[in-house]
Amino acid sequence: MKRICYFILALYLFNTGCIKKGDLDFKNVQVDNWTPDWALPLISSNLTLQSLAKSSDMISIDPTTGLYTLHYTAPLFSISAADYIKIPNQNFSTPAFTLHNPVTSASFTGTISDSASSSSSFVDTNGALLNHVAIQSGNIQLQVFNTFNQNVSISVVFPNITKGGVPLSLSSSITYPATSSTFNTIIAGYTIDLTNGGTTSNYMAYKLYYTLTGTGQPIAATNTISASMSFSNLNYTYIDGFLGHYSIRIPYDTIGVNIFNNNISANVFLLNPSVSLTFTNSFGLSVSADLDSVFGLTNKNQERNFTMPPIVLNGAPSLGATAITNFTIDSANSSIQYIFNPGPNRLAYQGYLDFNPGVSSGYNFITDTSSISVSAVANLPADLKIITLALADTVKLSLPQDTSILQSADFKLLMVNGLPLYGTLQFYFADSNYVALDSLILPTNNVLQQAPVNASGIVTASTSAATEFIMQQGRYNKMASKVRYAIVEANLNTSGTSTVQILNTNYLNVKLACRFTLNVTQNSL
Fold first, then answer.
1. What are phi and psi of 232, to 5 degrees?
2. Euclidean distance between CA atoms 352 and 374, whole angstroms
């Protein structure tokens, strides 16, 4: 039977630094050989707003006023140029060329070489006026058509498509009596100059060189040769010029606003919530971000929308650089208070990114790795009206299990409230699975009085309340061996329609001590 005595002594020595004797003021604590009383501290839980945040980087303290501000940071979305800006397939056809010096022969056996030049426009349905395109990968198909009854060898040269300074040249041949041929090749690593020497955009030039070798068949002045070229599956590493207009959908997504590490639920009205957005843009063009649908979702999936203006993003100043655009959504430029009052469990959003908004020309550039990303920080100052606020704290707790000498356990709970809130508090003994085994406080004794506040809603003093509960041996024995945790729950709100400020000096402190009355014989010691 000595184990309970040793446990009490060890627990007392371990905990006396947490609770002072005067905090609980048990009267007439005595120890004698026959009916000793043992008094010992069990827990001291101090709840502040900072202790409830997941980590210290989620909460800040105003250095002047001490006002808490909760922060929730999350990436919203990110897009890459290669996923959205595509080079459309290009199809070019030459006219049907006749010989510059027409030849008419009933039986042609000679050789004639000739050439012809032509140009076309690079086509883009988004209104792009491109200067240069560096090809990462792609294919070109050359088709040659011939009405000469002769053998033909053909080369098509693109003077503005070069690799290492050498123009792209495609060759094919048609052997009579065939009238056409097809040739495919890969054009990775080439750069297309669409400026015609810096004078225009979207300019594509090509030249045909061909040689006729007579077959003894007739040749007429009306015989022609022509070609068509198809560029497909074009991917780029770099584009410049005016990229035109794109409207890219920002897909629907949600962000959980779960910033507390303890069990907590709240129905609060915030005076000055805001969301700070940071856009990082390595596109060399201006972009308008229009989050046209932003709303909060509660546990019951109730939606609360708010509106905000489009945000114009700065373009990257040079290749390889990024431009940062910061924008704060607050009550001055939006109805954001509506979404945070009462506070949601999730923020949902969707919208559009519009490229080159309101302009039809200008100089742009992108690479295949250019990107736009945005992150958000929700800033929630603790300047608020609380409808309901449920706080909980869980601490490890063990109780003496050898209870054959126990007559009763007298628990005393001291509650010191330095928060500008009032409500109720309950203390639970819980097992290893956090399941409540017993509660300590009678409903009539668990009222917390609000700490007094000044006209600004700032606490000027604290209030305290104490409750005592005697647990007889049978009830104590039923739970003592199973207790592993103590759970302190507080349900709080503010008075009337007033608003309060929660500062770093505000707290709710709960201290628990127990006095064990023992029935001990000398043989038990």
1. -140, 160
2. 13
| Residue the block writes with tokens 């489009």 | 310
pLDDT digit string, tens, across residues 334-353: 877 777 766 666 777 888 99
Q: Where are the alpha helices (DSSP H) in 310-423?
A: 336-340
Rounded CA gap, 372 and 235, in Å? 19
Beta bridge partners of residue 184, listed in sequence order: 141
Query: Where do we find the tokens 């507390």?
Result: 260
**Residues facing 412 on adjacent strands:** 468, 513
Q: Taking a C-beta distance cutoff of 8 angstroms, is the pair 489, 390 a contact?
A: yes
Q: How far is residue 79's CA from residue 108's CA, in Å, rounded to a whole number?
A: 62
Residue 342: asked if its preceding bond is cis (omega within 30°), the reply is yes
75: its two tokens: 């990436």
> Contact 250/353 with Cβ under 8 angstroms?
yes
Residue 425's Cβ-side half-sphere holds a number of Cα atoms within 13 Å equal to 29
Place of tokens 């700032």: 458
**pLDDT tens digits for 162-213?**
999 999 999 989 999 999 999 899 999 999 999 999 999 999 999 999 999 9
Compute the distance between CA of residue 251 and CA of residue 241 in angstroms, rounded to an integer: 28
Strands 323-329 and 303-306: unpaired
CA distances from 180 to 90, 112, 148 (A): 21, 19, 11
Scan for tokens 């009678």, then name that residue.
442
As given in the structure block, the two tokens for residue 242 are 């005016």
